[in-house]
Each structure stands twice: as C-alpha cells, then as structure tokens.
Amino acid sequence: MIFAPAPDAPLLGVNIDHVATLRNARGGPFPDPLAAALLAVEAGADIITFHLREDRRHIRDEDVIRLKQAIRAPLNFEAAVTDEMLDIIERTRPEHVCLVPERRQEVTTEGGLEVAGQKPRLREACARLAAAGCRVSLFIDADPAQIEAAAEVGAPCIELHTGAYANAWWAQDAAEMARLRARLHAGLQRGRALGLRTHAGHGLALWSPGTSRPTPEAPSSTAVIAALPEVAELHIGHALMGHALFVGLAQAIRDFQAEAVQARAAAR
Ligand SMILES: CC(=O)[C@@H](O)[C@H](O)COP(=O)(O)O
Ligand SMILES: NCC(=O)COP(=O)(O)O
To answer: Which residue positions does UniProt flag as site: Transition state stabilizer (predicted)?
Structure first.
C-alpha cells in the first residue's frame, strides 16, 4: 500500500540499539548496526537514533565513529549527562543529541531525566552541546515541572517518555491508556506553549496484542501517539526491530532454504 505523504506527519527516528544487542549476543560482527542504519535511511527513516550507554551494552564507541562517517541522515545521539559522554559527543558532532537518565541495573530507560533538580548541570550541558553545533533534546516524563525546567535550561527540544503509555497499551488497560495519553498530550501542549519542539518515544509498537494488525478500533500505540498533532518526531527502536522479524522472517527462511538447495546441487 502506498500512502500519500502527510506534510505534518512526525519525522521517524529509527533507533538501532537492538541490532547491536543481537550482534553482541554472539560477540561477532553480525548483525551490524551500521548496515541496519544504512538500510533504514534507504527505506525512508528521517533520523538514525542510537544510545551509547555507559556500560556499552549495545552500541559501542566504534559504532558511533562508523555511523558518523557513513550515515547521511541526521544522527540523534542519546547519552547520559556525564563528562565522558559530553566529550564523546563534542568529538562526534552529531546533528542531534538527546540527554537521558541512566541507571546501571535498568533493562531500558525507565523514567525521564531529572531536569528540575539539576538545572545548573543541564544548563551547562545544553550550552556546551549547542556550542558544538548539536540540537539538544531532553528525554523527560510528561511532568509540567520537568517541561518548564527544560525550557529554563535552554533546551530547544524535549522528548516525552512514552514507556508508561506503551506498557498500558500492551496490557490493553483502557483507563490507564486514556489517562496517560491525556497526560502526554497536555505535556506536549505545554512544551509547545513554552516554545519547545516536542518529540515522543519509547516502547511504541505497531501490532495490537491479540490481533495480527492494528485496527481503527484497536490502534497501535504508535498510531495513538503519532496522531497527537504536537509530535514533531517519533523515536522508535525495540518494537520496530521486533516487527522487522515478523515482516522479514518468511523471506529469511526462503533465503536459507535456497542457499542450502543450491549448495547441494552445486556439490553434486
Ligand atoms: C532513551 C530511550 O528511551 C531509548 O532510546 C534508549 O535507547 C533506551 O535504552 P535501550 O535502547 O538500552 O533500551
Ligand atoms: N528515545 C526512544 C527511542 O529511541 C526508542 O525507544 P524504544 O522504541 O527502543 O523503546
């Protein structure tokens, strides 16, 4: 199906972290997150997003260098607010930076950045990264105090954490979905009123639980958030890569079967 372009549709940042997760599970070079990023750009991704974690559990320093050299779309470098990360970002000079919180034991980014409680530190980081030519975004919860603090410290953008909404969606908890959608929408509107560019991301998915495809009655979590008019960018990774498995698995099986059949024929 070909969709007519919607001029106000959110840009899509494709997060490639979990291609690296899969690669690192075996310690070899495959699958290469750079190859995934190249394919993503060719397929229409507007932005390539990646998170260089302090523990390097998925993306590694050499991936960052290779991405910077080879990717022509804007890079969105997600990082904790540490001196080490700020130094790496200054050397890399990605187009976009998203400052995120990190905890060693978390399985993923479980909450938003505490901006209101560390304004001097964030003000300094935003100024440093702006001086390096990076557009800075702060990854925060849809909390009015954090949104106002983001504007105060000079960040031009915020990305609202959609993880709680995404979890409610997986559980199909209608009351919680309605409450969290309204909270996100109010947060996006507050951000816009403060002059911020507003993004959203984390945990967003495409297929509805219990159905093979989203329907108008049970839209995907991605559709619900994308429909909010203040969302200028969506950043999606984990479920997008999971979705790729299901849209690509049948072809992968055919490719491996063909390889085996041809090898056996050639060996005869
Ligand atoms: C900040 C954010 O929400 C994600 O982009 C981030 O990359 C999550 O970390 P993991 O990819 O390690 O789950
Ligand atoms: N900032 C959110 C992001 O990049 C993607 O998060 P996820 O879809 O991997 O949960």
So the answer is: 159
